[in-house]
Amino acid sequence: MSDHKRLDGDRNDSAPGDEGVNTHEPLSGVKGYAIGLALASLLTAAAFILPGTGLIWGPAIPAALVVLAIAQMGIHLVFFLHITTGSDNQNNVIALAFGVLIVALVVLGSVWIMNHLHHQLMTPADMMRMMR
Amino acid sequence: MSGATAQAGRQHGARGHDPYALGHGHGGGGDHEATGHGEGGPASKRIITGYGFWIFLLSDIVMFSGFFAAYAVLAGETAGGPGGRELFELPRVAIETALLLLSSFTCGLGSVATERRSVFWTQIWLLATGLLGVAFLVLEVQEFVQMVAEGAGPQRSAFLSAFFALVGCHGLHVGVGILWLGTMMAQLWVKGFRADILRRLLCFNLFWHALDIIWVALFTIVYLLGSGA
């Protein structure tokens, strides 16, 4: 079945969040939302509890939290918003990809540039703090 | 290949649902929700509305990214005032997170009830979503009031300005979402499952789920990273 999906250029679209999207997949209906809730709860709990347990190497905690957050956003997109990789969902995925690109440019670009400026405009007090 | 496709098309056609348009353009009777070529004509209004709203949500997220960038840049600029470590109370944030996640779940159950055309259950789940949203908002306002009372208002430091702008903007979205939810409940009550009401419900569900996605980024970047975990 799945090879026909890709070979057939003629396809329907589906609205994001449409319940009909997943009717032929195991994530449909209440079950899909329940799985999404369980996974999201697990990731949220991990994000809140893990840093306090000492299970993660201290300096790696921010990276771990970011990874958990990105994973949880993926769970939300797939199980709640029904943005999947199905061929009837391509328009929605492409729009999402564009959004992610802009968000990454704005956030990472700002942090990068402002950190650079911060280093160049360091006050003597900051300098002393950095030297210590 | 085309024989197999037509066969698959008939298989789905029996249920009146043909997500990959397999029966389309092969004499399979077409589909009124097909894209703008073939006998089905342009995509249905529901799909176009949903797509348009999805674009709006993505631009809303792009707007939030500006606030996130400002917060990330200014997070350390406390001007001698209190920082995240002193101000943030993680237990309250955990409860807020649980409330919003649950409300996203009940919102999803509402959309399943809508799919099954059950007015009663749609209203019940919308009401549950709204109450959870109100509880979230109450906790957030409580936090803001407490911070301002401690002299940690938005005018105290650049860090706090960025904090109130970002978290307040999300709270404002939740507030608007609750107003929209109330409107949808009233419209559903009066007008029932008309096509336009169904489209609005679809957009509302998308909006509410998107708010939860933004909150995931928010509690991670602002509260968990900010409290110096």
UniProtKB/TrEMBL annotation, chain A:
<dbReference type="InterPro" id="IPR050968">
    <property type="entry name" value="Cytochrome_c_oxidase_bac_sub4"/>
</dbReference>
<feature type="region of interest" description="Disordered">
    <location>
        <begin position="1"/>
        <end position="24"/>
    </location>
</feature>
<keyword id="KW-0560">Oxidoreductase</keyword>
<dbReference type="GO" id="GO:0009486">
    <property type="term" value="F:cytochrome bo3 ubiquinol oxidase activity"/>
</dbReference>
<dbReference type="GO" id="GO:0015990">
    <property type="term" value="P:electron transport coupled proton transport"/>
</dbReference>
<dbReference type="Pfam" id="PF03626">
    <property type="entry name" value="COX4_pro"/>
</dbReference>
<comment type="subunit">
    <text>Heterooctamer of two A chains, two B chains, two C chains and two D chains.</text>
</comment>
<keyword id="KW-1133">Transmembrane helix</keyword>
<dbReference type="GO" id="GO:0015078">
    <property type="term" value="F:proton transmembrane transporter activity"/>
</dbReference>
<dbReference type="InterPro" id="IPR014210">
    <property type="entry name" value="Cyt_o_ubiqinol_oxidase_su4"/>
</dbReference>
<keyword id="KW-0472">Membrane</keyword>
<feature type="transmembrane region" description="Helical">
    <location>
        <begin position="56"/>
        <end position="81"/>
    </location>
</feature>
<keyword id="KW-0813">Transport</keyword>
<feature type="transmembrane region" description="Helical">
    <location>
        <begin position="93"/>
        <end position="114"/>
    </location>
</feature>
<keyword id="KW-1003">Cell membrane</keyword>
<dbReference type="GO" id="GO:0009319">
    <property type="term" value="C:cytochrome o ubiquinol oxidase complex"/>
</dbReference>
<protein>
    <recommendedName>
        <fullName>Cytochrome bo(3) ubiquinol oxidase subunit 4</fullName>
    </recommendedName>
</protein>
<comment type="function">
    <text>Cytochrome bo(3) ubiquinol terminal oxidase is the component of the aerobic respiratory chain of E.coli that predominates when cells are grown at high aeration. Has proton pump activity across the membrane in addition to electron transfer, pumping 2 protons/electron.</text>
</comment>
<keyword id="KW-0249">Electron transport</keyword>
<dbReference type="GO" id="GO:0019646">
    <property type="term" value="P:aerobic electron transport chain"/>
</dbReference>
<comment type="similarity">
    <text>Belongs to the cytochrome c oxidase bacterial subunit 4 family.</text>
</comment>
<dbReference type="InterPro" id="IPR005171">
    <property type="entry name" value="Cyt_c_oxidase_su4_prok"/>
</dbReference>
UniProtKB/TrEMBL annotation, chain B:
<keyword id="KW-0812">Transmembrane</keyword>
<dbReference type="GO" id="GO:0016491">
    <property type="term" value="F:oxidoreductase activity"/>
</dbReference>
<dbReference type="InterPro" id="IPR033946">
    <property type="entry name" value="Ubiquinol_oxase_su3_dom"/>
</dbReference>
<feature type="transmembrane region" description="Helical">
    <location>
        <begin position="119"/>
        <end position="139"/>
    </location>
</feature>
<dbReference type="InterPro" id="IPR035973">
    <property type="entry name" value="Cyt_c_oxidase_su3-like_sf"/>
</dbReference>
<comment type="similarity">
    <text>Belongs to the cytochrome c oxidase subunit 3 family.</text>
</comment>
<dbReference type="InterPro" id="IPR000298">
    <property type="entry name" value="Cyt_c_oxidase-like_su3"/>
</dbReference>
<feature type="region of interest" description="Disordered">
    <location>
        <begin position="1"/>
        <end position="39"/>
    </location>
</feature>
<keyword id="KW-0472">Membrane</keyword>
<comment type="subunit">
    <text>Heterooctamer of two A chains, two B chains, two C chains and two D chains.</text>
</comment>
<dbReference type="Pfam" id="PF00510">
    <property type="entry name" value="COX3"/>
</dbReference>
<feature type="transmembrane region" description="Helical">
    <location>
        <begin position="93"/>
        <end position="112"/>
    </location>
</feature>
<comment type="function">
    <text>Cytochrome bo(3) ubiquinol terminal oxidase is the component of the aerobic respiratory chain of E.coli that predominates when cells are grown at high aeration. Has proton pump activity across the membrane in addition to electron transfer, pumping 2 protons/electron.</text>
</comment>
<keyword id="KW-0560">Oxidoreductase</keyword>
<dbReference type="GO" id="GO:0004129">
    <property type="term" value="F:cytochrome-c oxidase activity"/>
</dbReference>
<dbReference type="GO" id="GO:0005886">
    <property type="term" value="C:plasma membrane"/>
</dbReference>
<dbReference type="GO" id="GO:0019646">
    <property type="term" value="P:aerobic electron transport chain"/>
</dbReference>
<feature type="transmembrane region" description="Helical">
    <location>
        <begin position="159"/>
        <end position="181"/>
    </location>
</feature>
<feature type="transmembrane region" description="Helical">
    <location>
        <begin position="51"/>
        <end position="73"/>
    </location>
</feature>
<keyword id="KW-1003">Cell membrane</keyword>
<dbReference type="InterPro" id="IPR024791">
    <property type="entry name" value="Cyt_c/ubiquinol_Oxase_su3"/>
</dbReference>
<feature type="domain" description="Heme-copper oxidase subunit III family profile">
    <location>
        <begin position="51"/>
        <end position="227"/>
    </location>
</feature>
